[in-house]
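Thread: RNA polymerase sigma factor, sigma-70 family, structure

OP (GT): Posting the sequence first so everyone is looking at the same thing. Length is 193 residues per the record. Can we get the structure tokens written out before standup tomorrow? I want them in the notebook alongside the other entries.
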Amino acid sequence: MGEDDIRRRESTSRDLEDIRQTLAGDGTAYARLVERHQEKVAARMWRFTRNTSVHKELVQDVFVETFTSLRTYKAKAPFEHWLAKISTAVGYRYWRKKSRERVNPTIPIEDWDQVLAVEPDSLDPEKAAGILHTLMEQLPPRDRLVLMLRYIEDRSVEETAELTGWTQTMVKVQAWRARSKLKRLFETSGLEV
């Protein structure tokens, strides 16, 4: 057994003990769970929004929903995986709500001029991520979700299906359609794909 396996088992063991104590009424046990997983949840939720105040709300929503659903956790998979499912659901709900508002984000002209003047290899990674995020905001929530899980989080088709509740075939089809739509957005923006 490797070091990663040992760490994972210890973390799972601590999670299970803290869950048991939380369900018994120990608030500090839940605080330990939050502290242990907050960084990963925050990173995942950053993929759903770049707005700092909305990001904080989404992270809080994940932990509130986790707390209220804690009794339903069956421990068939690691707590971290269950938390990822909740995070994905919270982020997806946010995207769906936001898409109903029909706000199409745009990239300021000066940013496009700067991007188009630079070779792709020399583009600042943060700037490129921001542009990608803005382009992805123009996609329907379902497309954004599959692209985020498959290509940004590098999840397998099986993991993506499990997190979304879709079939593996649906994940593959949705990913193909979403990639095609994103490619069209890049092409219409003047960037080379």
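GT: Both are above now. Quick notes for whoever picks this up: Residues 79-100 form the longest helix (22 residues). The domain at 1-103 is CATH 1.10.1740.10 (Rna Polymerase Sigma Factor; Chain: A).
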